[in-house]
Amino acid sequence: MTTDLKPDQVQPRRRDLLRLPGLVAIAFYMLILAAVNVIAVVGGQFRPLYLVLSIVFIAAALGLLLLLRWAWALALAAVVLLMCLFGWKFSVQQDLPYIVQGLLNLVFFLYLVRPEVRCKLR
What we know:
With about 120 residues, this protein is mainly alpha-helical. The chain is about 80% helix and about 0% strand.
């Protein structure tokens, strides 16, 4: 009994993820943001309510690695909100790191909305 599947069709998700290294970078970024939020809550800088954001960032990161469409939407929303937040902080405080983080989130947003990225999600 033989199958008509080609070798590249056996593991499409892994190959699709390898073709999209930006998704891995964005997932890693989301995990770093979650860790920073947890450390800030433990240190008393943020309220414990911010742990909800950490859970959302972790869910988005792990879902992006699995190429899930809901995780893409969650990551896209997080990136847009962070871009707006850092833009607002820069306009108020005039600190250069805020505009750098805002522009990094803009780059992530522009990567996530590419048609090549969207068509690989399931």
